[in-house]
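Complex 300.
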Amino acid sequence: MNNIISCNQFTRESLEKLLDLAKKIKENPNEYKNKLDGKIIAPIFFEPSTRTRLSFETAALRLGAKIIATENAQNSSTKKGESLQDTIRILAGYADCIVMRHNSDDSAEIAVSYSKVPIINAGSGKKEHPSQSLLDVFTIREKRGKIDGTKIAILGDLVYGRTIHSLLELLSLYDGIEVWGLSKEAFRLPEKYKKMLEDHNIKYHECAGFDEIPRDIDVLYHTRIQSERFDGDFGKEEFIINKALLSKFLQNTIVMHPLPRLDEISEDIDDDPRAVYFEQAHNGVPVRMAMYLTVMGYAE
Ligand code: CP
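Predicted structure with phosphoric acid mono(formamide)ester bound:
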């Protein structure tokens, strides 16, 4: 795999291979510290980011690579009107791998067609966020011991939440997955993703309230309403996970969120062992190290 731009590139086998590598890296990071000695990574982010950009940078440094980056790609020559394709052509002559976040749904595909070095998609519009969903399934597997049979509730913004779309794509590679969706009416899961689930024999339950989510659910996966992606004001999230709500679920239910959070998850559950969102974000480093090694041809 020379680029990672979409979750639809993965088979179950190639996904498991990457997750296994990330597990080995997490267990024994020192073994990988020189793997990318002499390599240069160019992270270019046209949208704000804390976790994705900094964990991709950490992952590169932990592998021994060096980084060239502008903190905000809006300060690059894009501001003068340079096209994405020209920016990519130039960076591909400087770096050995490009990590890109962009507000256009098609940006990753465009980048691949103009780059002679590997492209990693760090978020493309409302469409995909493959590195996030790779660390999401890594976390689910780590916590449950397996991904098959996962019962997951997806909450928040199911329309513009690219992490949701990518996660459903990866989960559809597994058996026995069942999904419950809970969101305000304006943010319900689009038909094309429901169809994708149906095509993989995955049952989807659209819910009107938390009481329709089974109390033995494995994962409650909440997301922020992506207000930067649409005009208008649909108000705040009304389905909030707090201590009282979480007490209705079993002890093995985990709470995940790609972060940043707004009001979706109350801080009163942060110390509950079922709240795994900070650990989930930290898993971004070994998973993104595994992504570099995969696209740059260093995966075993
Ligand atoms: N989860 C995620 O993509 O976070 P950032 O926007 O901070 O990178």
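The mean pLDDT is 95.
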